[in-house]
Amino acid sequence: MAGKVKSLYVCSECGFETAKWYGKCPSCGEWNTFTEEIRETSKAGMVKPERRISSRSSKPLPINEITTDDEQRYFTGSKELDRVLGGGIVKGSLVLLGGDPGIGKSTILLQICNHLGRMLKILYISGEESKRQIKLRAMRLNINSENLYILTETDVEAAAEYIRSEKPEIVMIDSIQTMNFTELNSSPGSVTQVRECTNILMRTAKTLDIPVIIVGHVNKDGAIAGPKVLEHIVDAVLYFEGDRQMSYRILRAVKNRYGSTNEIGVFSMGDKGLSEVENPSQMLLSGRPKNVSGTCVACVMEGTRPILAEIQGLATTTGFGNPRRMSTGFDYNRMSLILAVLEKRAGFYFSNLDAYINVVGGLKLDEPAVDLAVAMALVSSLKDIAIPDDTLAFGEIGLTGEIRSVSHTEERVKEAARLGFRRCILPRHNLDSINLPKDSYIKVIGVRSIRDAYDAVCSV
Ligand code: TYD
Ligand code: MG
Q1: I need a labelling partner for 393 at 20 to 30 A (CA). Which of 14, 241, 300, 310 fits?
Q2: DSSP secondary structure string, 344-377?
Q3: Å from CA of 169 to ligand 2 middle
Q4: Angle at 370 (CA atoms; ends 368, 374), nearest 5 degrees
Q5: Which residues line ligand 1 (CB under 6 A)?
Q6: Which numbered ligand comes closest to the C-alpha of 98?
């Protein structure tokens, strides 16, 4: 029976489907993300429904009889990557590695092959580069493993067939947007293709208990489906972030069924590929301007790690009727709130000034503990008084202008002390929870309000 051809519009951000084109997706609110897809509703053309599981294939078990002994993890040889994964790649898991094109996804995959290849047979399936190109890159990165097999293939069924016949112990797919399921009419990279290809790979991975790492490009114009449409299918989603102009990259877990999602890994891209950055604070603070107003250092927790980051603020007379506010790396609304509190509760007037906030190094900070440093950077610029280089501040700002306590105070102070800071402005309530060694040089100053904090910062 010939199938009925149906045209429908799919949002490349979230996968929302509709019969009519929209400029803005009613589901996720993104603009210009709808692409037309043709779907045939015949038996052969339809997306195959997953095979019905027989009612006896799985039976309920009491939770304390379920064993977890078979959760086996493979270490990648990269401490940062292992940490983000929650302690290595879990056998049989599906990991999505997303990021902008050119950020270093293929590079990191190839680099971990050296370590993984010592014990495991790896199948690297690339739909983007030729074998020769991969070899050249591997030579540059000094990757030479007998256990690394390269396959250039874009047909997902052929790839799955190779996985079944070659029986590798780990599979890498670079990238999911180049994979193609021939039974579907839509072009590679479309939402339907990307989703169905991932489903096929997932079924292969789960039945053979092989971990699969899938690369997914994030793109802004919506022409290809982003990793967002896959997030619910896979076990872990890692995003590679960072400015392509800058050398370092941050790997962040957005979802992880086998670990925490707070951890980040920091890498730096050099001519020998990616290397791990063991001391991110030092790197982020290098090149910090000295004795200038409008900069303050904060200490944020990224997972279990304290990281020091520089916050810059600028307040200038506005040239227009409406003052401009802009923030990079920090929530815009939170910045407006801090400006309002500074005006109302502490008497620092910004209403006829443009105000800008920038978190140095392309970091994105969303922890409330950054508030105080943001406020201090703005006030320092407003008053044109430099905050001493050896001073840092952290704490959450409340609407009455109070400084509220934050978690992990001791770790933050210790990290600051380790990097040579001498004064730390923090919430008063947190003072009791700090136990510093006697020979520590750092002086902790507890503050109750923004005013207190300002006085403490500038009292040298
Ligand atoms: P790549 O891993 O190909 O990016 P993706 O797979 O995420 O699209 O990384 C490509 C970029 O990394 C490219 O701009 C060049 C840079 N690079 C280096 O700077 N040094 C290196 O050793 C390598 C392999 C790449
Ligand atoms: Mg690539």
Answers
A1: 241
A2: HHH----TTEEEEEEETTS--B--GGGHHHHHHH
A3: 22
A4: 125
A5: 99, 101-107, 137, 140-141, 269, 271-273
A6: 1
